[in-house]
Amino acid sequence: MSMRTLIAAACAALALCGPCRADSLTDMNARNAKLPDYKALHTKIDNFSKPMMWLFVGDSITHGCMHTRTERNFVEHWMEIVKWEYGPKPGTRKDDIVINTGVSGETATGFLPNAKWRLGQFKPDVVFIKFGINDANKIGDVEKFKKDLTSIVGMVRKAKAIPVLQVPMLTTDGQAKRPAYAEAVRAVADKEKCLLVDHAAHWKEASGSDTAKAEWMNNTLHPNALGHRIMAYTIARELGIQPKNSPTLKLPTP
């Protein structure tokens, strides 16, 4: 099955959610829009005379290793959106820098001793943070996860950057602990008044269940290229960064 066919099938599945999907994305955008960081983010990105640095930290899904089968991962899609598609003409923000320091198998706990290398050496404007799946599988202490995630948010703010927390997408193995970790990310985002991208909520509405759609996944835990494109789409919608006529965001219809 071609990638175009897979994307078309995904669009058909999303369409089944109808207004439900749109309301969810709109509601999260409305939630984010109330925060000072949302205004700060849009002030920065709409200042076309000053380049931005976008930093992504996280696990193998952020890294995008292997499971996209040589296609773009969601970080690379985001680079296309901001460096080429956003602005009054293509390439308006061509000098933006997008850095991906995601590491396969990483947890929030494991990130902390490596934070100087993966975060501290840069001067980012925005930092996307995505942990939780490995934390649930390897550590299994949700309170520690919340504490470590809060510490990472603090580091980002100390670096004078805008933190964006991401709720990991669904998996297909029914991870028993995953929902608790999803709620933990949401709780930290609310407590710290962080921007939030809720991949899990979007995927749940699209699939109609607590497990990911198989055609969005390469294995039980990792999205395939289609899943990564859906993730980029969710980020753009929930942060209100939607370039007009964006090829990345205009998923083909069946």
Features:
alpha/beta; 254 residues; 5 strands; five-stranded parallel beta sheet
The share of residues in extended strands comes to 5-15%
Quaternary form: single chain
| Helix-strand string | HHHEHHEHHEHHEHEHH
How widely separated are the two ends?
Answer: 14 Å
Mean pLDDT: 85
- Parts with pLDDT < 50 across at least 5 consecutive residues: 1-23
Query: Strand sequence of the main sheet, in spatial order?
Result: 2-1-3-4-5
Any idea what the radius of gyration is? 17 Å
Helicity level: 40-55%
Number of strands: 5
Question: Sheet bearing the most strands, described?
Answer: 5 strands, parallel
What do you see in this structure?
The chain is of the alpha/beta class. The chain contains 12 helices and 5 strands. It has a 5-stranded parallel β-sheet with strand order 2-1-3-4-5, sandwiched between helices. Strand 4 (162-167), helix 10 and strand 5 form a beta-alpha-beta unit. 45% of the residues are buried.
Itemize the secondary structure elements and their pairings.
Layout: H1 3-17, H2 19-33, H3 36-45, E1 53-58, H4 60-63, H5 74-85, E2 97-100, H6 108-111, H7 115-120, E3 126-130, H8 133-139, H9 142-158, E4 162-167, H10 178-192, E5 195-198, H11 199-207, H12 225-239
Parallel strand pairs: 1-2, 1-3, 3-4, 4-5
Helix pairs in contact: 2-11, 2-12, 5-12, 9-10
